[in-house]
Amino acid sequence: MKMMNxxxxxxxDITVSIIDFLYRGRDYQRFWVLEEIARAPYFAFLSVxxxxxxxxxxxxxxxxxxxxxxxxTLNETEHLEYMESRGGNAYWIDxxxxxxxxxxxxxxNVVYYWLAPRLAYHLSYEVELHAAETYNKFLxxxxxxxxxxxxxxxxxxxEELHKAIELIK
Length: 169
What we know:
This protein has helices spanning about 1-20, 25-40, 40-55, 60-85, 90-115, 115-140, 145-165. By secondary structure, it is mostly helical. It has a single domain (about 1-165), classed as Ferritin (Up-down Bundle). α1 (about 1-20) packs parallel to α6 (about 115-140). The protein starts with a helix and ends with a helix.
């Protein structure tokens, strides 16, 4: 498990470096891409939970996890809409990048969650912490009350994912 957590962190660090390079100086476009991608794991988790339920593999935590992931999806969509209102999706190249990354990330999460849900949650936990850090760095130089709220939402999502990790031991 420790090795896979290290692998998750390694993959996240590489991905973040690439996105940070591509979106340097374009904060709302980067935020929009990140929020577009951020919804993928929750959709993937819900898809796998529905599949497990259909196969009679529902566990005691099933309903709780479905409710949490659905709520997280809605919340991430609200973040996405705010970034759109700030011009985050104004350029076709940003939409192209995000929509292709989200396909890869979604299907990766479907497989990952089916095979190793705790590790999938760990990756999403790390992503949510990174998102909160990214928004915090932005807020050091800019004032934006909505970004402050979104940063807090990301911290809350990380806490919920940590709870999910503990729940499915």
